[in-house]
Structure prediction request, 190 residues.
Amino acid sequence: MKVGLLFGSFNPIHIGHLILANFMANNTDLDTVWLVVSPQNPFKPSNTLLHEFDRLHMVSLAVADNPSLGVSNIEFNMPKPSYTIDTLTYLQEKYPSYEFVLIMGEDNLPLFPKWKNYDRILEYHRVYVYPRSGSVTTELPAMPNVTFIKAPVLDISATFIRKCIKEEKSIKYMVPDEVAEYIKVHKLYL
Prediction:
């Protein structure tokens, strides 16, 4: 089984995440894509993050009707902040017959050499890179385990969605209806 791993805060999950995950699951050699909810990204401040269980629940709601996608809370019981190499190592030990492929946005490439043990990630795992608007080119694409995937580019962000919610503006079509309802009922991001 070849599993693509799309890590994220998903604060909240939005259609950009879902379109990308679905595209990767259905237009590459991946058998499935797991959306890995990260409790705390080492490069992002944690004070803007909704509780991880709320974010996990919204991701679960968003992918419930798609058999090509899965959800993982693997990092919830790991030390924080979460480091990708540790998660990949743990997953490989837990599922030895699976091949795990890291899915990352092109905008992460300039920071990638700052990731903990990034060279080990490249040595033991493939990395599928999708385009992001405004990305800076780096040396990394020349690496043999890095593959660029021409996935659709959708310029939408969770930051923009949170801003809309605070300003009491509609987020319809930016997030799945079930996620919008969850946010509304639980008065999140206000």
